[in-house]
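Worked problem 6 (solution included).
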Amino acid sequence: MADNDLRSFLAAIEASGDLVKIDDQIDWDQELAGIGRLGCERFGPAFMFNNIKDYEGWRTIANPVAGWRRYAVGLGLPANTSIRELYKVYAEREVNLIPPVIVKDGPCKEVVIKGENVNLFDLPTPMVHDGDGGRYLGTWDIVISKDADSGWVNWGMYRFMVHNERHLTGYPRPTSHLGKMLLEGYVPKKKPMPIAIAIGADMPSHLAAAATFRLAGDEALLAGGLGQQAVELIKCETSDLYVPATSEVVIEAEVYWDAVAQEGPYGEYPGYRSGEMGNAIVAKVTAITHRKNPILSLDTTGFMDSSAVTTSISGAISIRRRLEKHGVPVVECYIPPESGVHMAIVSVRKGGAAIAKQVVELLTARRALISKIIVVDEDVDVFNMAAVIHAFSTKCHPQRGTHIHTYEGRANALTPAYSLEERVARRGASVAFDCTWPPEWPREETPIRATLDSMYSPEVQRRVLSRWNDLGL
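Solution. The predicted structure is:
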């Protein structure tokens, strides 16, 4: 069972050796995020900043789950749980949903600030990167919104920039659930859309908000399944939305249906600043509630950040299930977080050009987030990047093994390789690298790997492994 609030989770990763506390005064202007950014780039720990310049009484946690060890603890598992086991556990829990429970009081209501007393600059919002358009509050958050017609509630993870004391500007894409809810439900009715931004909630809730989940799915139930216990929800002060009751900070706001404001640029999860300042949604903050001695959570977005780790596992499981649904003989799928969620590795029981083409076409039919797909035979461990690189280097024919699929209107606008024109038009391409042996090759003509498990008899393998263990290796 996972911890039910951020503070219990932090105690757990401190006990596992995956948290460093910093008591020296740290500047919110780039220095704080810079330490967190270096931590991601060097596969380091999470950082708790206990003394933030200009913000006495506030603390900040940087990169809660930017690494598999902390991700494992977030699910209530030992820190040394293997990636393969994490995938297995996530897939099992994802289909065993647990409904939330409603409570009348919770820690996030210890301090309540409303109306004219709201001032976003009272929060230690960091300047995350040099060159960002402003100070970003929503980097590791849960943005809660409700469909105007059906009442369906969505949890997502979207970036929000402080515009002034009472307003935020944000970048939920028009194709995102929040963007579609606004454009299709509230704009035609000329009504503002209530949202709630929960910061520093329990880890399963954040993992659910960042997850690739089924359309019209309820992430509150997913959070309960991932954590193996019901999430406690509490009603907002100024809307009928419900938020995790143990959240450190909750920002309640209304998105204008008839206004935009400038937002960006920002260094995003692919590891680049790939966009300029432009028009974005604008939200007026109606209330801020928080715990005493509150903790602001921060994802120092870029290479190997928390969002890349989080979305990679749910995205890979979603890909595997989609391929299974369409009859692809898929065995496993892995999205390396190091790829910025731009590459997937798919192993299949039967390969060949037709399978590779089918895979790339299926994965680009609706939204094309993955631009590189490596298809390997089932004897290649998709979680072993050395084995994947070897298969890619030796088995992918430079001409016959490359299958490119182009599209327009559904490309990932944050893909750094795309030109500005391509990003605006959402025009792009995805490529499948076929690293499988052609099924029409005769068995005697198919190369055999020069590895212990392929080129030695079972008896010799047994003796070697026994000797290896006897040597204490």
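Discussion: The two ends are 34 Å apart (CA to CA).
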